[in-house]
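ESCALATION

Customer reports they have been waiting on this structure for their group meeting. Please prioritize. Original submission:
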Amino acid sequence: MEILTLFLYVLLSITAVAAIYQFVFAVAGLFRKPASYHPAATQRLRRMAVFLPAYREDAVILDSAVRALDQCYSKGLFDVVVIADSLKPETVATLRKLPIKLVEVVFEVSTKSKALNAAMQQLGDEYEVAVILDADNIIAPDFLSRINQAMERGWLVVQGHRTAKNTNTSTAVLDAISEEINNHILRKGHRVLGLSSALIGSGMAFDYKLFKEVMGQIHTLGGFDKELEMRLLRQRVRIEYLDDAICYDEKVQNPAVFEKQRTRWIAAQFKYVRLNFVPGVQHLLRGNIDYFDKVFQNMLPPRIMLLGMVVLATCFTWPIWGASTVTWFATIQLVMVAATFYISTPSELRQKLGWREFSQVPALFLRFVRAILKMGEAQKKFLHTPHGTE
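Update from on-call: job pushed to the front of the queue and completed.
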């Protein structure tokens, strides 16, 4: 029994760090004020390239490309660049009829970093800003204007507000909530406390020269955004977050795709903790808190795993130990995690939660466990997440 108690204390000490970290930033996120938006007062409009890498994304790329053209930004100052990788001939033929730039690429092993690097090599250096989207993303008409205004204020890297464009299944609702919790904690909360926003892989913009330079050093199979983020923060390049620069993103609609996507994400998370832990500590001693915070953030258990562990610990300890120290230690963490989730979830998404969604959580927890066990697969090949709203 003593060994079991010791094990629980060690486990709950780990979860306590994660619970407190997320709770602090969740509370901080409540104080984030919207960025002022005065497009008419902007002194200079920057030339932008809006990249849409499309690997086997025939179902969504045409709509995304057309919608990306619909911007209240000077038409001569931005180009939509579709990077066609393994698209059907008929899709490519239709894309050629659009007023976009089409870059066709062929790789033995396709990755997003390869596609972006190849496109920038073909395009040259005529742009000032690189905007990165996923093939399923749709940006609001004022997205580029808001990005330009942030660049006017001196930011070199800006993360927009990626949010759900579909909540048509229970899995999609939970995925949408997860996205917004990330926005609240890792972006809003971090900016309130003076730290950089987290990147998320799309709906983001960069100084073009900086992006091309850093991307030229990235050749990873998956999780290019994590490596990009690590490299930028190591160079002390700070990241802004624009809550009103909206990028709509398709949410995962079924548990099998959820597992596949999370397998890729977890593999990247473990990889970059391993590569950056020692440098992160070294940079902390030199005052680079942003970089260390990112390394520390990736060491924390995924949120659904945290929830599952504190729920199991609470349910396990009450029948055995009653109102003991270890029981209260678990229970207080569960309350803290629940409060974090509640205040980080927008009210319109809270209203979509019902018994179907709650009943899906245990299954997704098990899917996450399986994703951890399968993460070696993602280190050997790129795991593509299919898109196309059903």
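Sent to customer with the following note: The two ends are 51 Å apart (CA to CA).
Escalation resolved.
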